[in-house]
Amino acid sequence: MLPKRERNLILILLFLGWCLGNLDRYIMNYAVLQITEDLNLSASATGIILSSFFLGYAIMQMPGGWLADRFGARKILLASVILWSIFTGLSGAAWSLASMVVIRFLFGIGEGGFQPSSSKIISNTFPVAERGRAMSVMLSSSGIVALIIPVLSAFLLTAIGWRTTFVVFGALGALIAFLYWKYVRLPEDRPEEKLARATNPAEKGLVGSLMKTPLIWNMVIAYFCIYAVNWGLATWIPTYLVQSRGLDLISIGWVQTIPGVTLLLGIFLSGYLVDKLPEGKEKIVGAIACALTGLMLYLMFTAPSVAAFITYQTIVNLFIAFVITLLPVIILKQLPTSVTGTAMGIANTGGQLAGFATPMAIGFIVDAFDGSFNAAFWMLIAFAAICIIAILTMRNKGELFDRAKAEASA
Between 20 and 30 A from 14 (CA), which of 83, 175, 204, 374? Predict the structure, then answer.
């Protein structure tokens, strides 16, 4: 473990990178209202744009995690930020549906290595007992972004337009990449650590064992389901509130700050709670959170008013925040550090495939049901139910878990 001051500096820098990555993704959910008008797109075409990023992001999760384990998390972190910043800036130059889809897909490829490499850095630099809280700080970036992006996007998109907004965010990415290059220094960057990582056959065997571990595939399913709910709501709620509830962009910006606050508080509290849960109780609490998520989704789309809708959205964010925090912490605590990059990459592939499939599916569903979102909400409720099963059937047995316990007690 690095000294506490160095750990905290790295955590702050990773947090800033996650904030920017979330800004780059979330801004599209609001910019797409202008893009749809400028490029004359249907709901199905809008869904394809929203999904194209996630296809590239999902494809890169497993390779990104493996590369972080094999060549070092810092290198993959830097490469990821540089590439995603380039394609964020290029998003502002898109001239057609096809060009936007290609650029957003490549943006997803660029950002794909960031999540597994940054998670591995947490595993390398923080003791087991502090990893839940460290991860909650990282994940809180999505809550902060969800809080500020409605108002920020309304201001930026009306003041400078969607094209210039993407260029500005690309420039901010270049600044983050410089800070990582200058200040993120890890034990894994020492020559002896690089040699050990490249030549240790035991660790290579562990990666093979990882692919045969049932827990990993439960994680893939659970990630897919909870992120289907998360990204289904995040990508389509602005459009839903305009088309089904009659709000304008400025009004959406203000009302969406309320669920944003809840998501932020939920992630912070979840990190603390997960670290305090007795071993074996994670599954029960996670399943309860998924069940309540499904209930709140039903109450959302049947809400008689905008105020009631926002109230239920605010509550559902608490439960989504808990599950999103719980799943990666299970990996960081139950698996040895040597394979956490690959493990996070595999699990997060499920989450990002959901990010690819769900917005596009909702677009087609809305078109098929003449603009109604009710069937889309039922689909999200079904995903919450499947997530319950995936969490409850997780098993913690085998060589990898023995290695993780040995690390924790060392």
Answer: 204
Buried b (16+ CB within 10 A) or exposed e, 351-377: bbbbbbbbbbbbbebbeeeeeebeebb
Q: CB count, 10 Å around CB of 211?
A: 13
Distance between CA 354 and CA 218 in Å, rounded?
15
- Asked whether residue 351 is assigned to any structural domain, the reply reads yes
The angle subtended at Cα 52 by Cα 49 and Cα 54, nearest 5°, is 130
Q: Determine phi and psi for 97, rounding to 5 degrees.
A: -60, -45
**How many CA within 13 A on the CB side of residue 103?**
21
CATH number for position 88: 1.20.1250.20
R_g of the chain, CA atoms, integer Å:
20
Of 335, 394, 352, nearest to 61 by C-alpha is 352
CA distance 139 to 357: 22
Q: How far apart are CA 316 and CA 290, in angstroms?
A: 9
In a domain, 102, yes or no: yes
Instruction: Give CA–CA dist 337/44, Å, rounded.
Output: 42
CB-based contacts of 7, cutoff 8 Å, min separation 6: 1, 125, 126
Does residue 410 form part of some domain? no
Of 74, 5, 4, whose CA–CA distance to 341 is shortest? 74
**Domain ranges, residue 66:** 4-405
Domain count across the chain: 1
For the entire predicted model, the pTM comes to 0.70
Cβ atoms of 179 and 9 within 8 Å: the answer is no
Span 20-66, pLDDT tens digits: 888 877 788 788 888 888 888 877 788 788 778 878 888 887 788 77
The mean pLDDT of the chain is 82
The answer to whether 90 touches 170, Cβ cutoff 8 Å, is yes
CB atoms within 10 A of CB 403: 18
- Cβ contact 96:41 at 8 Å: no
Which is nearest to 334 in space by CA: 128, 183, 155? 128
Contacts of 114 (CB under 8 A, 6+ apart): 17, 18, 21, 64, 77, 80, 81, 84
